[in-house]
Amino acid sequence: xxxxxxxxxxxxxMAGGAGLAYGAMSxxxxxxxAGAPSATTSGYRPPSAGDLIGDVSGDHSVVILGxxxxxxxxxxxxxxxxYKVTVLEARQRPxxxxxxxxxxxxxxxxxxxxxxxxxxxxxxxxxGATRIPQTHITLDYCRELGVEIxxxxxxxxxxxxxxxxxxxxxxxxxxxxxxKADTYGYISExxxxxxxxxxxxxxxxxxxKEALTExxxxxGDLSSDGRYLGTSRRGYITEPGxxxxxxxxxxxxxxxxxxxxxxxxxxxxxFGYDQAMLMFTPVGGMDRIxxxxxxxIGTDHIHYGAEVASLKNTGDGVDVTYVQNGRRKKVSADxxxxxxxxxxxGRLENNLPADVLTALKAARPSSxxxxxxxxxxxxxxxxxxxxxxxxxxxxDISQIMFPYDHFGSDRxxxxxxxxxxxxxxxxxSLRHRQRLAKALDEGAAIHGSKYKQNISSSFSGSWKRxxxxxxxxxxWVGASGHGGExxxxxxxxxxxxxxxxxxxxxxxxxxxxxxGAFTSARSVVTSIHERIAAG
Amino acid sequence: xxxxxxxxxxxxxMAGGAGLAYGAMSxxxxxxxAGAPSATTSGYRPPSAGDLIGDVSGDHSVVILGxxxxxxxxxxxxxxxxYKVTVLEARQRPxxxxxxxxxxxxxxxxxxxxxxxxxxxxxxxxxGATRIPQTHITLDYCRELGVEIxxxxxxxxxxxxxxxxxxxxxxxxxxxxxxKADTYGYISExxxxxxxxxxxxxxxxxxxKEALTExxxxxGDLSSDGRYLGTSRRGYITEPGxxxxxxxxxxxxxxxxxxxxxxxxxxxxxFGYDQAMLMFTPVGGMDRIxxxxxxxIGTDHIHYGAEVASLKNTGDGVDVTYVQNGRRKKVSADxxxxxxxxxxxGRLENNLPADVLTALKAARPSSxxxxxxxxxxxxxxxxxxxxxxxxxxxxDISQIMFPYDHFGSDRxxxxxxxxxxxxxxxxxSLRHRQRLAKALDEGAAIHGSKYKQNISSSFSGSWKRxxxxxxxxxxWVGASGHGGExxxxxxxxxxxxxxxxxxxxxxxxxxxxxxGAFTSARSVVTSIHERIAAG
Lengths: 535, 535
Prior knowledge:
2 copies of one chain form a homodimer.
Chain A: E1 21-22, E2 52-53, E3 61-65, H1 69-80, E4 84-89, E5 100-102, E6 106-108, E7 114-116, E8 124-126, E9 132-133, H2 138-145, E10 149-152, E11 160-162, E12 174-175, H3 176-196, H4 206-219, H5 255-261, E13 279-282, H6 288-297, E14 302-304, E15 306-313, E16 318-324, E17 327-333, E18 335-338, H7 342-345, E19 349-350, H8 354-361, E20 363-364, E21 368-375, H9 379-382, E22 389-393, E23 399-402, E24 412-420, H10 421-428, H11 432-447, E25 455-462, E26 475-476, H12 488-494, E27 500-502, H13 514-534
Parallel strand pairs in A: 3-4, 3-18, 4-14, 11-22, 15-19, 18-27
Antiparallel strand pairs in A: 1-2, 5-8, 6-7, 9-13, 10-13, 11-12, 15-16, 16-17, 20-26, 21-24, 21-25, 22-23
Helix pairs in contact in A: 1-6, 1-13, 3-4, 8-12
């Protein structure tokens, strides 16, 4: 298939064939505003920053290993630019680690256990990615693909914190509302006191002090003499209502208990650049994005159940073999984009250089997993006024995530744990039945005995024990956090090996985010496009 | 119509006929869990705390003045218990101050100006109530009535603050994300410093200090030596992405500028008991609740376009006259529930005692209003990554509220101001065209010139200038805030005048909230029910 001349070259400073690049790549997601003609059907199509710009001639083929976010994004973008693409995906579904579990989902894990989900129609949970920050290009793809989105409650005043230990307030369930009110109240009181005592006069001017104490009085809801004495922000014992139902005030915890109890240990989660609300998610499951990609790419170009066996540069192209329905097949293409999890690439027959194989191994696999429980009563709404968000704990379950859909209905799926690292390792070798029992015990310690009642069904997954992934996300040796941080191995894999390119969230500064996979895919697609144009 | 024997007396400690009351009234909204049989159709019907319990005999009729939240809630509950109800509503729609403006909405205000809304199909904004806290009984009615709800973004990291004045950072647009990061960073640094200096040793133990500084390091994202040097929480100049696109760091503002600039002056809004997220709203407009009430009550029992003219106790009942289609009509009933705005009751022909009329006047009317603009481009999403929430300012517009629906589509309605008090008074005497011009000037000062482009249409309303309301909510003389606070006048109106009962959010501790109207209505309904039972 010839690379077609793009009808929507926008004339943004291109110097002939060498000017090939993504439109407005420098401001990813900030799509060019107006004037970009609709390329497709009569329906709305926003201008896209993901369109390859420029003109190359000749047939060019690409084989893409993996039908997750990076693979499908790459296939979609290259198809738009007229490339011939073949996606090989070992699973029978698109999305990779984006996996929405619903009725009929069946999986045999690497522990050898098979689970089949029996949730009610319309109910699901996302075993992998479940939320999207506003700044991520993921939302641009939702817009471009027509995937409907809704708000995702990342934090909720009515959910609970409950931490084990021997500190004050240990094992007590406290609403986020109350934990915040007391914490902010006491830190405001303390800083007001220190300021008024002149303890900070070397760094605060008189005007600073006046403005600061004014802010703190409001921030902490302090009394006129600068003390925190409790606040309606904590909530009420009985709800204020009509007439003389003023609501029953709650009493604040003692300052020392609040501080030493560590009630605020999780507050900063919601300030994080990629976690601050408002957060979003597709209506009906995160996998909607990948079914939309699949529909745009065309199922002709995606081979499901295709387990890659070998990967070899041939000098003028790439040969890939795979096993599908028990038969070994071969694809040859001009280029390959490999989105296979980095620590699994070495298992393929390959002719990659030793230093590349070493670099791939530096992306260490990690543990994470979830367990979803369908309840036939929304006790969290009816009894606890919790409509979404998560309760937090230092138990192995780490958090309990309440559904963001089907509000007010008669059933719903609660994510009874979403844990990673050591906490997840406590679950991953267990049978599902054992995981559920542990999750219920820990959840009941926070939300009470109702946590064990009205359970319809459940389903769990652990990414380390999930075939074709065997990891939740990559931890680069020598790096910390979810950023690439440019370790030597990371840098190494940013370069192609002859005609093989690596892509995935592990090669981005947004590891474990779809945005990382998409930007990586776009970067590789651009590199190939530029290489061809350069001749 | 006879009061039917309730089939679902739940045996919660009733002493004969005198035990009539709402089930579980003491825990409003916390509906009794299980065992309450479905009273209606085959569809799901959650157990209701709003069912009158007990048994009275004979025909009993009630005339209800006003088809807003209090009036329709009262009518719905009394109908459930078998009372004969007649609702008189002056407007041609249910909901009162719950008013969703959409295509075809026409209103002539008390300035004499007629506006007709020409928003695109499916687009609207709520000129009155627009959000529901999780704790409010409003959500229970949504469940009971089958009104679908969705999250409402009350606060958003990507929206802006921009304050006028001569303080530092005045007239600058700063994201909430950055404003919070800097404010929390500097107060954490300051309190850490004061703590380490021993300035608070009289109130903090060594363990307190250790736990506090650990919390502050995380809360403020401080350096290892306890300083705030900026943080990724502020956001990036360029978005982090693939490979070596680490994202362009932003620099924090100076401490003194952040403090004196008052960037945090609105942070406490989101800690408020009735504003803390997660917040909710019905899909398709707040008025969906009142159309649902209407459908349950039956339109036979609601007279629209019925302007009440007189209201009189007759000794054994109440006579009400009203004007409909130019004709004066009369309703007689055993009881009356009057939900007419308190400051307007005195305009009716009435035989209310002088002290009651005086008490009604103590509920002073207030100013509030909104203006909605439909844009044909969602510039807030495409250019600024704002998907809902509000920008805040001390200009008269007070805030700009971004739509919580139609994400990613080609148009949307922005609430260009939601102001009250003096800020609203700056708008209420203006013609719509002038309001729009002022709103655009003030909005453009925050969001730039794009704020004035791609405008399709607009519609504004000011509650002081809206017929039949003439107020946004009541301010009780001698009280502050939105609680009843039991002033003598407030207490006076909690008692019936013979057979006339007053209801509305003004007679609750949740003034300006639907919850206040509902709890007031339920309280009055219970009083009437108990009075009849007592014989």
